[in-house]
Amino acid sequence: MSTAQQGWHEAAPSPFDPAGLTFTPVSRGLAKVRLITAVVWLGLPLVAVVVLAVVFPGWWWWIPIGVLAVLLGWLLWLVPRQVSAIGYAERDEDLLIRKGILFRQLTLVPYGRMQYVDVQAGPLDRWAKVAKVQLHTASAQTDASIPGLPPAEASRLRDRLTERGEARLAGL
Amino acid sequence: MSAEQPAPEEHVEWRRVHKVTPVLQAWKVIVAVFAVLVWQNVETITELWDDRDSVNWTLVLLIGGGVVLLLLLVLTVYSVLSWRMMRYAVGRDAVFLHSGILFRQQRHARLNRIQAVDVVQPLLARLFGLAQLKIETAGGGGSSVVLAFLKEDEAQRLRREVLDRAAGREPAAPTDGEGPGEATAGAPAPAPAVHPDAERELLTVPTGRLVGSLLLSGSMIGLVLLLAGLTVAAVATGSAGPLFGALPGVFGWGAYLWGRFTGGFNFRAAISPDGIRLRYGLLEQRTQTVPPGRIHAVGLKQPLLWRRRGWWRVEVNVAGYSALENQTESTTGTVLLPVGTRGEALTALWLVLPDLGVADPKAVIDGALEGEGEAGGFLTSPRSARWLDPVSWRRNGVQLTDRAVLVRRGRLNRALAIVPHERTQSLALTQGPLERRAGLANVAPATVGGPVSTTAHHLEAMTALAVLGEASRMSREARHRESPAEWMERVGLVPRRPPAAAGPVDAPPAGAPAPGPLDAPPAGPPVVGPSPLDAPPAGPPVAGPPLGAPADLPPPAPHERR
Predict the structure, then answer these.
(1) Is the whole model's pTM more than 0.90, yes or no?
(2) What is the CATH number of domain B15-172?
(3) Residue numbers of B between 473 and 492 with CB closer than 8 Å to A
(4) Does B425 lie at the interface with A, CB-CB under 8 angstroms?
(5) Which is deepest, B42, B52, B67, B443, by most CB within 10 Å?
């Protein structure tokens, strides 16, 4: 087992891409969900401000319109990238989760350290056919959630994690 | 009246708390009610006082006295009733507490979920020789079972009983065979092999040093500076406005320092069969027992001003203590040593982690505590980190030993965090945009919550990835290296048994010690024999014989591979 790991850093193209590991990307549905959320939270206020600007003309309306439009544009550009940066890889003994573009993060969770697994999906998630799998360890520091899994994959992963967790369980 | 029994076949003995309890509980209520009444009627009272000449004082006193008497009566009846309704029992696998008059509460705490049993003595209870027993379960805030108040020795006995049962032992009978007279710090009878009272005091904090450490702490200096600044401002402006404006802040600051003082007052750490026993407190005295197996990380800290004195503070992350609702508890329950010399700090470290798993512990400890750069075999930040971290980039460091992850930090305020491999919950590699430009990354072994921060900052990015991989491999291999039985043997509470007989439940010493495949970049030659820290038993202030010299500590239990 330990030999499989040798050189995972030497041959790695980047620190967040250990050699010999293939990260599974998450569903594009997650991008849809996040984009819709962004549009609702920023787009609707934008429309409202535009309407107000038409009704009560004035140059100062350009400030909120500009801010909202820039934020929205930035999110529209960012979200698909963010989603494609999320990936996970299952190994024999642990699960690796990779996230983030600007602030990157690679989390390694041994199956034996898992306390329980959550699968969550809101109404929008269900519509877009994605679910979030969250692993809980004894540490609140551990950020081990995989958003945007297809429901079938989410349940497969949950069952697999639970089964592995039991098999590898070591005391706290 | 006779509510549901724990189990039909189980016969438990229901007991009541001490008779004085209602009095001790009630006085707080009386004070609170009085304060609320006064607060609510400030205006009326001031009005009364303003036209004090025209008021019929007899009438006021009569009414006031009547109200107070009525209150007292109601309270007394209530307290007595609630005392009568409150009963507790310790069963085979749970602690039962039934209470409440109108709203009945039956709290059953399963013994196998118990995290800690503390004996707490608030000031007033101490005067009466009473104590309360706090049983913490792993249920987050508000999940503790509080038995208040019991006679002090009864509380101690019950604590032992609960811990015994939680550990799956029948409560130890006093006639438990004979044993070689291990140090028993004042136990009357010759101690059996694991006498529950067997306790050896290892660390104490003299009050003078505690006061000194607080005077030399950053918060005290900050407070003094703040007060000086405020005084200057007050004198300059000629009004006391700034002083009063900052009063809440000053009070908060003072309360923090006061908490540090009471939390470290008369601090004693001892070894007991249940774990490390901590006693401390000025007005309210606490006895806490930290099982070594629940400690997930140890942190040694040295603020800048302590350096000349060579003082260190030792804190731990303990499972089950992080979610406590009470703030003072969460700050004191996790302190293994409020202030101590370097040797004492290493003794405290040794209690938790006997063996760093390195060939030359002295060099590693020197490098970890005072060293910079590569001293002691640490992987440190590259030169590219000096822009991001100009002060302490040479001090940042991480080292993987056979046993633990060592994280070194802080050049002015030195800190060292140690996470045993078997306690690592998960590992994380993080990188922000600036670190990315400098080719750096941070590695953090995640542990249960607590005061010890375990992030190793600003390592060379590829090295960080290598550390992550190695640490994950090592934590995988580390499994149950030390059972509670082994711990008791190591600290000398029970005589060492021959390896064959020392059968811990879950980790049978199978075969020869595995020589730990060492290909981690920083690791030295493989260590097979015992290589404990050098400092630990340096003259502990105890009556009993000192601990065994490091050389005759038992070798580390063989690695168990799964």
Answers:
(1) no
(2) 2.30.29
(3) 473, 475-477, 479-480
(4) yes
(5) B443
